[in-house]
What we know:
By secondary structure, the protein is of the alpha/beta class. It has two domains: 1-155, no CATH class; 157-412. The chain has helices spanning 34-45, 57-60, 69-84, 90-93, 95-101, 105-110, 113-126, 142-152, 184-199, 225-233, 237-256, 271-285, 294-304, 307-323, 343-354, 360-380, 394-403, and strands at 9-12, 27-30, 158-163, 206-212, 263-269, 384-387, 414-416. Strand 6, helix 17 and strand 7 (414-416) form a beta-alpha-beta unit.
Amino acid sequence: MTTRRCASEVIFWDVSMGQEMSYRSGMPVALDEIADMCRERAAAQKTELGPWFRPSAVLTFHPLALTKPARWENALAMVMFAISGKSPRRDEVLPGREVLARLSRSARRMVEPSDVLGLLASLLVGFRLSDRGDFVQEANRYVDAAETMGRLLRTDPLQVEIPLCAHRAPRSLEPRRLAREPDHDGIRRACALIRLVLDNARVAHGQVRFLQQTATERASSCMFPSVFLEYVVRGELELLMGLLTVHEKTVRRVADQYTSESVRFSVEPLDGLSIEAEKQLESTYGAGWRRIGADRLADALAAETADRERAAVEDALRHVRRFMPELGQMRGRRPILGSGIPTSHRAAGDWFFERSDTSAAGKALFEVAFYRRWAERTRATGSISLGFDRDWSRYQRDAWLLAYDGGPDSRIPLLYARRNTDVLPGRALRNLSYRQFWLPIKREMP
């Protein structure tokens, strides 16, 4: 059955790390029941309610906080605690005021109390916001949150595209290896957060597309070269391809559990987006773009790009050199593949070694092109995108800005979810994590 909220309720999804109240996920909650939800959450977690707990506030606040703003803060904090299990600090609630202030005038006139308690609360819980500096690691800008919220206040159907990186095993246990399976709890938290956002939006229907690398000839394109090479050298190419198939099926199986008539999840190949990015690079820089040297990169960028694209590529190059130092050093390391390897798996090895001469500069060009093409696809469909892959770096955001033809102050409908690889007990939102499914999160202790 399709569940959509009315103006006097919100749709509850448990997006806490412990999932103590997940049995109520997907259910509508009347505004006058929110105080009871807070009490239930506090009892389940054996914690005390914070100073923000003012039961009357959820029924008496102004949605734009134009009068008695303390009531607005109390009401929003109550919902944030109910859905996340975290007692938000005041400085984690106040960014909501900044988001509302940056909505378009027409969108601000639309905002109702249920939009604040349902939609805005879900964005503040799932996506860290900051206004400090030009780019803050692991944080999103207020204007991008406002752009995203504005689209979610519209009723036309929405498509959300989410590329995923390879699901790696914990470095401390199996460096340079993929996980045997993605982290099921991580997938569930991400899907619950997405449903929380979309069920409390006004869109008539949402289509969520996870783009997952599958066991094709391009299998190595979503992981560090050193990881793929590790499997090949050990004669475990078939194992690697089998793991990619397991990963795809696992993400699909878990995501299917969150599909409804109003929000549908699918898992689709990542290859299409990668191929589109490569075609753009070949059109711009020629067939030899993969082998371009750092000494030639400056000249190529000066001839073909604007200043902001140059800055994005240079930042990506620093990223590549740090995390992929093996690039440019793999020629001549091709082992002999066994005769018993299936043709499809052998093709993945051939594809990898045919590109073993890719330079760090060439990889940096691809990284920017990939995120730019993702942004162009989002813009073409009038959609939003959510980031759940591991990294969130300046060059990724700048690549999106390029697609929207804007400078550093332009708005983009992209938000990256919170990421914390070492979740410890704590009351603040910073102790939440939703991004990346390949590193199991340490469970909180009571």
